[in-house]
Amino acid sequence: MSLFSLTRHLSFSITPKTSKISTLHFATTSLGEKLDAHLQNSPNNVEKTLNSLAPIKLDTKYVNDIIHRWSLNNLQLGLRFFIWAGDQPNYRHNLYIYNKACSLFKIKQNPQVILDLIETYKLEKCVVCADTFKVVLRLCKAGGLADEALMVLKKMPEFNIRPDTTAYNLVIRSLCEKGDVDLAKKLMGEMGLIDLYPDMITYVSMIKGFCDVGRLEEACALFPVMSVHGCYPNVVAYSALLDGICRFGIVERAFELLAEMEKQGGGCRPNVITYTSMIQSFCEQGRTTDALSVLELMEVRGCAPNRVTASAWINGICMNGQLQDVYNFIERVVVRGSVSNGDCYSSLVVCLIKIKKVEEAEKTFRRALSSGMKPDSLACSMMIREICSEKRMLDGFCLYEEVEKTGCLSSIDIDIYSILLAGLCQQGHSAEAVRLARSMLEKRIPLRAPYVEKIVEHLKNFGGKELVTELVSMVR
Question: Does residue 49 contact residue 39 with C-beta atoms inside 8 Å?
Fold first, then answer.
């Protein structure tokens, strides 16, 4: 039973448009049959009908397939399914699927769709709960809709639902991310009026919010308030404040706060995230000497740098043109065993490409390969893409084959295959193009639509008609 047949019954007072893509199917025929049968009798209250079919086994791929299909045919229906799915037991939307929903449903471009949804729940007298609203609030947060999130929060009592601390936190975080810290502060004050109290998430959101707009004193002032309410500052709260202080370049105060965290000990003791955040902030400001001081202090305290620390430091000193210092650092951390050679050199290659030192990046990349290192997928993708952008398709293909021998291609950007194949075809490298095309078929790597015409035309001329047929069948 296809999804197309379901959209005829799951309508949201919007006429479905004819889709140009192939029909996606439910995981089982029986589920489709059940939906059809039930929706014929109750076409309006989608949630009630879906609930009658529970339990439905959900996962991210399943939800993604359905919302993709319905975003093309019936946006509001897809949105209602998405909200319903996020409220089901044994399944929770992750950040990826929230961002995907924002994109498919064009939430940022049309925020009114959120308020229309809430109004529809009210008109149809849908049975919704606090968790339903939290899914909506998380969607608002993912879409950057702070004002709409606040309106949704204020609508909850109309459904006889009392907002809890989690609901308030979602809106407060959205407001802080928008930069509206005064309204967020006011909302935090309102919590006490309904016997709710801010928790660590509330305070950390406010600390970050004040720091983001440069109101550091107000961020500092929250710490004694937290303690009075029995919410004692921990490493997360201190690190949020420290990050703000570092970003505004108040070096002396940053080291004072770091010392204070050490003195407090316990749950306030700085961790690798704390130190890495400081290093990253100082490097971004060109304060590599201060960043080095943090790195040394970190090691003295017995906190080993991780891959993110190494990447932040490598990026910072690369930006300042101190390449020799980069190699010295890599040797230092690799010897101590906290970060691998491959991770360090991958970060270096990515950074060199970003600062347009492509020749140096390629030398570094090839040196890493010849030394038996395994660059990560980002470094591999960026390096091959950069070579292709210079129209050096044979070089790109040879590097592709070298990387393939190391086993690093499993997570490489699949766009690279189409870009490289199109370039080989255009430049008349028939043998290499056919080899790459066959490799794509073996790996089930689909052609990207923008490159199909160029690739098909040339491959046919190379005598690969059967190859073309198979490749086209996997076009995305």
Answer: yes
pLDDT for the residue 30: 46
Residue 31 has pLDDT above 70, yes or no: no
Which candidate, 366, 299, 359, places its Cα nearest to that of 329? Answer: 299
**In 10 A of CB 190, how many CB atoms?**
12
Q: Is 192 exposed, middle or buried (0-12, 13-18, 19+ CB in 10 A)?
A: exposed
29 in a domain, yes or no? yes
Q: Of 130, 163, 196, which residue sits at a domain end?
A: 163
What mean pLDDT do residues 326-343 have?
A: 85
The answer to the question of residue 70 being in a domain is yes
State how far the alpha carbon of 277 is from the alpha carbons of 178, 238, 308, 458, in Å.
22, 12, 9, 50
Bridge partner list, 2 = 25
Residue 461, pLDDT score: 75
Provide the domain count of the chain.
2
* Containing structural domain, residue 465: 414-476
> Global pTM?
0.77
Q: For the segment 199-256, what is each residue's pLDDT rounded down to a tens digit?
A: 999 999 999 999 999 999 999 999 999 988 889 999 999 999 999 999 998 999 999 9
Identify the pLDDT of residue 23. Answer: 37
At 67, list the tokens: 């919302």
The number of residues in the chain equals 476
Report residue 44 as tokens: 């309006």
Domain end point (choices 163, 194, 213): 163
> Left, alpha or beta for 127 (phi > 0: left; psi -120 to 50: alpha)?
beta
